Amino acid sequence: MKPVSLSESSLPAQIWNSALQLDNIPVISTQSLVPPGARAVVIAPHPGDEVVTCGGLLQLLSTMGHPLQLISITDGSASHPASQQWSEKRLSVFRSQESVEALRRLGLPMHSLKWIRGGFTDNVLAEHELELTEFIARYLRPGDVVFSTWAADGLSDHDAVGRASATAASIAGATFNEVPVWAWHWPARDRELIPWHRARKLRLDTWTVARKSHATHAYASQLDGEPAIGIAPLLPRVLLERMRLPYEIVFV
């Protein structure tokens, strides 16, 4: 996850809580999204994106006994440039620990979870898209159902990982689904840029939502900014509020 400028005063104008189309998105079941026996692969550009994008879906799939694989593209160590409190050296260790705790809070089977860490550098993924595509394709196989960030999410790393994941899935013969993250926080005037015809709504029960929200709060390094050097919280309140919605939306 990366810094964005989200004014608290502009909250009512965000797509996620103002678009009328949200009420009309068709509901999809977990079984329809990931067929029985299929492996689900979640590809996260930065630590925490796996929870923000698919924290509810991961819980449902784990409960149903689906094989799961996570691919973390970067270690998120460049999230606080020029920070002494959160240096790259500290974050390279700390953010992976945050992810372990977050996945534990989701209730995932850590002893058997397949988890690949790419070690790519934050902020420059678009410059290494071919290498990124080849890396992802190495871990996919026919029949996989892949989830990653939308290629038009509006954040360079998210867009690059979305494009690379789509290409890699096509090469591997896997099904690819995109999940918007920052796109929901675009101004309401941009709502027509959302591919509503591809959107599907996965309903989450109260406990699944609660665990997802609890997991998001495991990312302590992302919850507080450093105003002295111009760094806002990387998990702003507006995003944390959206994590409590009783559904996740996927572009199929």
TrEMBL record:
<dbReference type="InterPro" id="IPR024078">
    <property type="entry name" value="LmbE-like_dom_sf"/>
</dbReference>
<dbReference type="Pfam" id="PF02585">
    <property type="entry name" value="PIG-L"/>
</dbReference>
<dbReference type="InterPro" id="IPR003737">
    <property type="entry name" value="GlcNAc_PI_deacetylase-related"/>
</dbReference>
<protein>
    <submittedName>
        <fullName>N-acetylglucosaminyl deacetylase, LmbE family</fullName>
    </submittedName>
</protein>
